[in-house]
């Protein structure tokens, strides 16, 4: 305050503080001395100085010398207030502080348990929905393996008060499905048979099995004969002759709710990106607008950003530090709160009999008081044990599948998971009618979710997966840390193991160890330790060796840092195979959907000029190597798909002023007509404006297009150069009849 000239000097400051103390005495109110603490130790001063310096002239603190604001000891506080006399200083620093602290009862700013919303009859509805579907699929009475699993799960779910969480998820998925959008599950929710039977996930966690849709006959494989029911050979029911359904992925329930079944379920769902806002708003319908909020996030200073702050401080202050000192200063600034934000998917649900302020303050995102959602001020991780968060994510796969269904009329749920033609693209592009040289890939998986990147295509080239289980392994291996490189890939290369029996997903460890005869609880504990990168204690390793578990398997476990859930991988592969089916058998439908939904960057000129122009554009980006920008790398992926489409005998057409859509590629015979947003620099809003203006009445000139379509001169020039506006005059032509 002295530095800011709000107070003349220290004498003036002491006078003001003395008057405050006297006022407290007159009013018989205790006066307490507190500190304005910004950091713990005096030497931490430099970190705050660096952080404030990074804000430049926008922060007025940069125009003055910063005061020392470390956490003062009692003696330091007494020294600072010694001008009041030793007795009065001790009163306001020590005595009054303790007096107020003693007068306050125990305060718990955060709740000590989970508070879930109430839904009348949730327990009964979850049980009824589960058992109804179970009897429809598996008959009545249920097979023992199904009955035992459901008893275990329902006891855990209902007994721990988790029914409402399941029911919320069921409501959201059911509405999305009713509105025509499939929902993909994430995480380990597919480990729960109750989640499967209530329609939350398509992943069935039971051991691989046949079930007859007519007479309910079942056959289970519990000794590791198969890893997935989708790999079972086609078979007719021995009882009634009906074609049986193969199902089940052998995923233990413990991976979802823990070995004792009391871990709070984390149900994450992938909705279509187009449908996500509707799903978010549906939570307001379910619980009321005053009971749902967006989960808040806290953004902190990243290590590279902190290093940049240090370098800027050196530059601004004319100083030069050694590398070790720069690293120390950067470390001190790393992790400091930088901004608050909004979780893209998390919805917080407050019980109807409680208030959001029982858990957290709230705020408008970016202080925008017109925003549709309010956000929790506390970062969700601070309160996740106390209040329910539902993750309603937006994802491209459900959007793409909806478009594929609309264009083809094929119900994606009827697509088989063992189609030989589809399976062949994971080893060769031959089924697509192209060679490896033509598309510069040894597989046909360009543009297939989970399998299109160069890294994963390299895994496919090495392993040649031929069924669902092996694809599931690839998905798990590609998402894990220290699971493939230097681990499974070497085991496969040297012939020690195959893609079928390396450790691909976290659940594999538990099921493998149980198959080898290890105790189920110990198997679970080993799985949990390995998936978190904590290795395996020596005594557990000894138990594994007693069970004659191969040494390579133990060594592989010890290298792993993170593992992907099998249920998550199973859900991803389900979506990927559906999309791959259209790529193989309905190519133009597939490419129209891919370029409309998944692609953002286009080189429309090269694409319309043909495959040689596209190959040349690809070559130019590849020649840049690591120097290629992120935008160029994204464009390269699009060009690879464009090249493949052209090699398969289809063509692109330049934007058509009379036919093109705003952002969807349209099928026209054996061609795709480019949308308006494929034009460089033409955004979605302008694209929609052009279409809206065209629907009102045809464009009569470039001037008319510019005015009504809000199209800039640069875009008009591009369209003119590429013959989009052929036959359209530059200006509106005034007719004599217009004046009559």
Write the layout of secondary structure elements.
Elements (H helix, E strand, L loop, with lengths): L9 H18 L17 H9 L20 H7 L5 H18 L18 H17 L5 H16 L3 H16 L5 E2 L7 H5 L11 E3 L6 E3 L24 E3 L6 H4 L10 E5 L3 H12 L4 E9 L2 H15 L5 H11 L3 E13 L12 E2 L11 E5 H4 L4 E8 H13 L11 H5 L11 H4 L14 H10 L4 H12 L4 H10 L12 H10 L4 H12 L6 H9 L4 H9 L6 H20 L1 H11 L6 H6 L1 H14 L5 H18 L3 E3 L12 E3 L2 E3 L10 H13 L5 H7 L4 H9 L19
Parallel strand pairs: 5-10, 6-9, 11-13
Antiparallel strand pairs: 1-5, 2-3, 2-4, 6-7, 7-10, 8-9, 12-13
Helix pairs in contact: 2-12, 3-4, 5-6, 5-7, 7-10, 11-12, 14-24, 14-25, 18-24, 20-21, 24-25, 25-28, 27-28
Brief account:
This protein has 740 residues and is α+β, with helices and mostly antiparallel strands. Belongs to the DNA polymerase type-C family. PolC subfamily.
